[in-house]
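Researcher: I've been going back and forth with a colleague about how Anthranilate 1,2-dioxygenase large subunit might be arranged in three dimensions. Neither of us has a model we trust, so I'd like an independent prediction. The organism is Marinomonas gallaica, in case that matters for your notes. Sequence below.
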Amino acid sequence: MNQYDLLNMRYATVQEARTEMSKLLEARPANYSLDAPLYNDPHMFRVDVEEVFQKEWLFVGMTSEIPNRGDYFTVEIAQNPILVIRDADGSVNAFHNTCRHRGSRVCLEHRGKVANLVCPYHQWTYDLKGNLLFAGTEMQEGFDKSQHGLKKTHCKTAGGFVFISLGKEEPEGDFDEFLATLEEYMAPYDVENTKLAAESNMYEKANWKLVLENNRECYHCAGSHPELLNTILEWDDTNDPRAPQDFLDHYAEQSAKWDAEGIPHEHKSYGPGKRNRIVRMPLKKGTKVMTIDGEAGCKKMLGNIKNPELGSMRILHLPNSWNHMQSDHFIVFRVLPISAQESMVTTKWFVHKDAVEGEDYIPDRLRQVWDATNDQDRVLGEQNQMGINSIGYQPGPYSETYEFGVMNFLEWYTDTIQKNLKK
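Model: Here is an independent structure prediction for Anthranilate 1,2-dioxygenase large subunit. You can compare it with whatever you and your colleague have in mind.
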């Protein structure tokens, strides 16, 4: 627990925080920000972890990060180390990265390749499906290896995305319907034939909800994101009440080209607060992708895409991911909580698997716009957190035209917390 958490601890126990959280969310006006404890109290943060990050579907990575048998990556979700691995039949599995002997992490590296999973502590060995193969010769008589395999998490893939849930039961809802749409909309990109070109991990001294709130609006873009605004159009949908006619005309022209190429683009959303959402939006006229000058970031286009001005297909998955799919590369974002006032934002850039670094693409050029934008957002989030920590803070009103996405996010958050607290 850091110094900021200690200063903002208001509740003596997690159970007290649960009770108060329910009351605060019940009383909150839908168009106002949250009360300060929901952003900075460590016990309320613990409730967020238990009721959101240990129960809901979370985005963790892409299948093309582990293209072959034995390839794996690891991720830590609020002190829960997780291992995602490709097994011998090509399936993607996710396990708690903790040995069934004495609990040590089994895979210590962020990425790797193994024939079997061997715990470095006492060499307990598991196959790629998590079955215990070897536990030494010193176990008691009657020891049953079949009862000591790695513990699985729920894991689903669609369109190259990998989602896991740490809950005992799969989360309820229409997630499978969203996955079917994701599979359809991602088909043109042929994710299995892409590769990771660059990755960044940014530590942000702000509550995870502030990171998401900042992402869900572009009210701040004009004053903060000059690099991003070289290419992106701030309107999030053709139904945006602020969208001018020239944008609607531009969308109509681009969508006709998408239709001609068989590229799906109809807006789809699922769940409370549009928690799972896919929408394709054009970029500024004359620009192709989100590079500093709007020109191609990679010489090889993705999948079966022919149109370099494909715009950006924006994919939202709450609680922890937003993504931009473009003609020659795509970018995925993952947010994970660390403490009440600390988060980790991971950004990954993907290109065609046959693209040659330095010849077809330059990682620094791919990263330039979003490295700048991420850091700008980090500063905004940290300043937001510091202001909320003040005794002078009280919840403020959202703009229903500029900040409807934030309102949608908090609608989902409120609904999810209230639902899970009652279970």
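Researcher: What would you highlight for our discussion?
Model: I'd start with this: Residues 131 and 149 are 5 Å apart (CA to CA). After that, consider the following. The two ends are 28 Å apart (CA to CA).
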